[in-house]
Amino acid sequence: MAQAEVPYAAVPRGSTDGRVHFSDELHESDADIEDNGLFEHRETMEVADNDTLYYGMSLGTRRRMRKGRVFWATVVCLVVVSVVGIFWLYFDGINWMQRSKKRNVILMVSDGFGPASETMARNFVQRVQGLPVGYQSPLDEILVGSSRTRSSDSLVTDSAAGATAFSCRMKSYNGAIGVDPERAPCGTVLEAAKLQRNMATGLVVTSRITHATPGAFSAHTTHRDMEDLIAEYQIGNYSLGPMVDLMFGGGRCHFEPGPHVNSCRTDARDLLSEARTRGFRTLESRSDFDALDAHSAQSLPLLGTFAPSHMDYEIDRDPAQQPSLAEMTNKALGILSAATKNTNAGFFLMIEGSRIDMAAHTNDPAAHVREIIAYWDAISAVRAYVDAHPDTVLISVSDHETGGFSVAKQLGTEYPEYLWDPFALEPVKHSIEFISSKLLGQAADSAKQYEFVRDTVFPKWMGIKDATHAEILAVAQETDSVQLRQLLSTAISDRAQLGWATHGHSAVDVNLYAYGKDAHLLRGNHENTDIGDFIVQTLGLNLEQVTSLIKNDKVVQDTPAVKQTWMGRRDLDAPEHHPHMH
């Protein structure tokens, strides 16, 4: 037998020599170890086959193996946990963490508002009000970058495709309302915010609430003209049910049944009654709006339509009849804030300065600048809210530029003078839309029409004291609405020396503004779809999941749509847009 110096010896269990014993059944257990001081000193003992009698190896070897097994088991567990954690974070964990935090997202869309329009409005306010040369507008102070505007089928987008890029974070074709290029519904950030985060949601606009931009967040149709169907979506007549808690704007005509005098529906459905049946409170007047408690959520869901068609331009608006964009914005913020108080849900609110675009379509610089200033007022209101609620982010962006607008105009063949004159816009009292509607509504008396244009239209409504006989006669005799608007536009724009390249849209990049939580992430030049991506990431949304829920919803209106024609003749001439004339 070999002699070895070991700290113990393994011996048969029945031995009485005072050494350590191991159970035949529980070889590795401490249950049978007698602590008799043998581990504190060393002595020479006789070992049979070097401790292999029972185990085939020394205790030290076995202890090292046990430690090795524990080490590698720990490593494997850590690897498994890490891999599972990474997959969880990638697929849902980040979304879950985002959803666990309160966030408010306010997206403001300045429809048709390009960089030159911001310059023009700043110049106008600075010069007319006598402000310092370094004056900055509420938007100038939060400029972070620019946005590219092309759609999936054109370098020049329309409002429908532009808004769908924001709402579905995807490029689609011109005319698309919440549908992809294959004309299938795409889930929107508003729908996902409601379904996945239980957020309060709202739309505040100065156009018809069924118009392209609000429609792209709340409906799914293959063409923007299907406003009857858009209205049905907005009151929840589809698979998801009501998704919009608050709607302020114009467009009551698409909710009233035909053949009501102010209805523009092509069927007899009374969507106002249907909305009330679904729990909506409906508002139709300034007094209804004023009666709303701005700090109560009790009125939700809420549908406020304050005009048959679009709301009036700011330059024409009667404050006793219609609220301003800033007033609607403040009231919406108060109501949605109250609805989400003491919750982690927050709210998503889309606000549109809709008629900035329409004034540019008409090439009406005086109405255009007043709409921009009204939008600034709404921006200031939202910025104040963000300051008081640091869990909120404001994003302001245009869907496209309208008019090919320039702060310059060459009036003849000679080299132009650099004389853009903001003061030419100051005395204008009404929009070209308002003036033309009055002219077209006059009785066919050429002499009286000429006097009306000479004595009222030019000097009192347009602030033009030097109108020529040719200008007065041309306006007095014109009976086509589009041509009449062009004559009026030329009269104002020439005197201000402001230029227009088109009555449509252009492909120019538009300014991007942001303020509040994580606003810095939007710095630089972006595709318009990046705005949707930012909202998705901020709120931890899954638009694909929403898309799968609505894939079978109707996207084509059953009845004929009211077609929009060149330069928006429907918006300019339709009976519901001028109820005072019918």
Largest sheet: 10 strands, mixed
Radius of gyration: 36 Å
Structural class: alpha/beta
Helical stretch tally = 18
Strand content: 5-15%
Question: What is the topology, as strand order, of the major beta sheet?
Answer: 7-8-6-5-9-3-10-13-4-14
Shape annotation = globular
The total strand number stands at: 14
Estimate the mean pLDDT confidence: 87
Estimate percent helicity. 25-40%
N→C terminal distance: 122 Å
Low-confidence stretches: 1-15, 17-49, 576-582
Structure description:
- By secondary structure, this protein is an alpha/beta fold.
- Helix content is 38%, strand content 12%.
- The chain has helices at residues 59-99, 115-128, 159-168, 189-197, 212-218, 227-234, 271-277, 286-290, 325-339, 355-361, 365-388, 432-440, 446-461, 469-477, 481-496, 529-539, 543-550, 569-573, and strands spanning 3-6, 43-46, 104-109, 143-148, 200-208, 246-250, 281-283, 302-305, 347-352, 392-397, 401-402, 505-506, 510-516, 524-527.
- The strands form 3 sheets. A 10-stranded mixed β-sheet has the order 7-8-6-5-9-3-10-13-4-14, with helices on both faces.
- Helix 8 links the parallel strand 7 (281-283) and strand 8.
- Helix 2 (115-128) packs across helix 11 (365-388), helix 10 runs antiparallel to helix 11 (365-388) and helix 13 (446-461) packs across helix 14.
- The N and C termini lie far apart (122 Å).
- Residues 1-15, 17-49 and 576-582 have low confidence and may be disordered.
